């Protein structure tokens, strides 16, 4: 009988339709949107760029000169927060302070018991900053261009209280690097396109801007000051709940570039920290993300079971062809929009590995919740 398929095939079809919805409503319209306008220098305002560093001397030697070279006529300061470093970070930044009046140093000797070290350090840095507009990056990042600052600050004139940017990882040899970049592309596609559709739920601290008023309205990191993760996404959650307006700046000139983890273990620990904040998201955001991630995980799980049913092989193959074509087309368009290219032929493989890796991470957090920080 025509269309007399097993329940497994109908379930797989439902999963594919859910994923098609996300591609058609969120990812592809965002990927195909026109380029953002050039920044209006006449309307620019001074900005404070904040960098928190813990034993990051070599990274700071690379980052700080690039920040000082930013082309931003409105003026800016760099607030370097030395968070309990035992290397020569203090001496290096002190030398810069003598030559560059817009470089300022905040030194943290100790973190009060029970508080998240980075959030405590950022709080003191924000209190020290001179200007109401704040732009954040990490010590192990670099701006993609000398116009990073001006492009990110242009987002405030949409108008907005928070600006979400994209932070890519440097391409290197090896499968792990490609998987890390795929995960970054997929995550970026989610939070940027959702925000563009008016559903902001997170940002990344490697490339994030907000006003001092936003930080004050959320009482800083007060709601999650004891949680190691969430200095970026949980702050966005709190700010949006209080009515903050969020803009997206996704032009390649506004990106930052980071060094990826070199080992599977290091990446595992990093992703555990990031994923742990998700349980604090608003219910609507958890459902929106859960539908997307769950439909992908369910598709792979049911597909594996359907392989043992010979009558399901033909419709299973058809659904795999449709979904694979969708994955390749959608993620290729996202990678082009975000200037973060990956081999198209490898995208289906990366998709399979990533979602099984995500499932393993979720199980790990459920069974073992202890996290590590620097």
TrEMBL record:
Which UniProt key words apply to this protein?
Glycosyltransferase, Membrane, Transferase, Transmembrane, Transmembrane helix
Q: Which residues cross the membrane?
A: 6-28, 289-307, 344-368
Q: Which InterPro entries match?
A: Glyco_trans_2-like, Nucleotide-diphossugar_trans
Q: Known Pfam families for this protein? A: Glycos_transf_2 (PF00535)
Residues annotated as domain Glycosyltransferase 2-like? 48-215
SUPFAM superfamilies tied to this protein: Nucleotide-diphospho-sugar transferases
Query: The organism sits in which domain of life?
Result: Bacteria
Example GO molecular function:
glycosyltransferase activity
Family the UniProt entry places it in: Belongs to the glycosyltransferase 2 family.
Q: What is this protein called?
A: Glycosyltransferase, catalytic subunit of cellulose synthase and poly-beta-1,6-N-acetylglucosamine synthase
């Amino acid at each position: 009988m025509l269309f007399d398929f097993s329940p497994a095939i109908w379930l797989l079809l439902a999963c594919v339709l859910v994923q098609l919805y996300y591609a058609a409503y969120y990812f592809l319209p965002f990927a195909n949107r026109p380029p953002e306008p050039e920044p209006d220098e006449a309307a620019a305002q001074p900005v404070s760029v904040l960098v928190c560093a813990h034993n990051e001397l070599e990274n700071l030697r690379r980052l700080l000169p690039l920040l000082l070279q930013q082309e931003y006529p409105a003026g800016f300061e760099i607030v370097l927060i030395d968070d309990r470093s035992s290397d020569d970070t203090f001496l290096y930044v002190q030398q810069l302070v003598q030559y560059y009046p817009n470089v300022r140093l905040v030194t943290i000797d100790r973190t009060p018991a029970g508080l998240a070290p980075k959030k405590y350090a950022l709080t003191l840095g924000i209190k020290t900053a001179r200007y109401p507009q704040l732009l954040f990056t990490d010590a192990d990042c670099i701006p993609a261009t000398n116009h990073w600052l001006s492009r990110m600050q242009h987002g405030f004139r949409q108008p907005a209280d928070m600006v979400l940017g994209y932070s890519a990882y440097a391409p290197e040899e090896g499968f792990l690097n490609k998987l890390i970049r795929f995960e970054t592309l997929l995550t970026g596609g989610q939070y940027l396109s959702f925000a563009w559709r008016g559903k902001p739920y997170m940002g990344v601290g490697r490339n994030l801007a907000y006003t001092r008023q936003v930080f004050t309205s959320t009482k800083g990191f007060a709601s999650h000051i004891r949680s190691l993760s969430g200095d970026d996404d949980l702050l966005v959650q709190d700010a949006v709940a209080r009515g903050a307006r969020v803009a997206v700046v996704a032009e390649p000139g506004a990106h930052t570039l980071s060094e990826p983890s070199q080992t599977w273990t290091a990446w595992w620990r990093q992703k555990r920290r990031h994923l742990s904040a998700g349980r604090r998201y608003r219910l609507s955001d958890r459902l929106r993300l859960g539908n997307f991630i769950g439909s992908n995980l369910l598709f792979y799980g049911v597909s594996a079971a359907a392989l043992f049913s010979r009558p399901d092989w033909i419709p299973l193959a058809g659904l795999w062809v449709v979904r694979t074509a969708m994955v390749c087309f959608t993620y290729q368009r996202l990678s082009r929009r975000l200037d973060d290219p990956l081999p198209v032929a490898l995208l289906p493989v990366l998709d399979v590995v990533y979602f099984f890796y995500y499932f393993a991470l979720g199980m790990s957090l459920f069974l073992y919740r202890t996290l590590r920080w620097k």
